Amino acid sequence: MKKIFEAHIISNECAVDDVYKLTVGFDGRLEARPGQFVQLRLPSNEFTLRRPLGIAALDGVRLTMFYRLIGRGTKFLATVGSGTKIDLIAPLGNGFNVSDGEKILLVGGGVGLAPLLFSARSFNDVDVLIGGKTASEAELWSREFNGAVDEMFITTDDGSAGVKGFVSDLLPEVLSKKNYDAVLVCGPPIMMKNVAALVLEKNIRCEVSMEGRMACGLGACLSCSLETVDGRRKVCKDGPIFDARKIIW
Q1: Three-class SS of residue 61?
Q2: Residue 226 within any structural domain of the chain
Q3: pLDDT tens-digit series, residues 158-171
Q4: Beta carbons within 10 angstroms of residue 229's beta carbon
Q5: Same domain, 74 and 156
Q6: Could you tell me the CATH number of the domain that includes residue 24?
Q7: pLDDT digits over 177-218, tens only?
């Protein structure tokens, strides 16, 4: 059940380039499913709207998230030091649907890999296909996923680590190696669209974590509506996890 948690920042540090790793602690206990997210209030009256952040790691009283510097909000967040009090609404959204005994492939690009970390640490028999811009970004995610997955496959835009290209370039080869029951995807929309097409072509279940401009995170404002074969849906409330077959890309 979602509720507001009073929290404090344990660490908030640059992980690589413009990607930051944020860990908070709080009183009480938070339970969440892989794929769910939180709405974090920035500790400043200058910002009215909360920021949605995916859950990368959770042990009940400590929560880790990643974010990329994009606008004024995230740039301000990067300046907030340890010990600062914040509050967040959690858990929000649905989660990935994985059954015991299933072989899972995680496919992510950039900070889209963050919520997949929670999946890697929660499910058994998991591989990951990592897409990064550069070697330094790929190395960050390789360290984070180390020990949580059976096998890692890596691509970089510039070819400085792993295979040069995008995750969709390496995906056919990865899918041919093992019998995956499901592929869970998070990253830029065009990446998810291309990955979903390749996965569904193989008749493998594919779930995607969609993004949206969430003003409330509770399904009230309609700002994150998404077109699906079942009509308009709200990313924050009906998602963020959707069956890839349902998305009108």
Answers
A1: coil
A2: no
A3: 999 999 999 999 99
A4: 10
A5: no
A6: 2.40.30.10
A7: 999 999 999 999 999 999 999 999 999 999 999 987 666 666
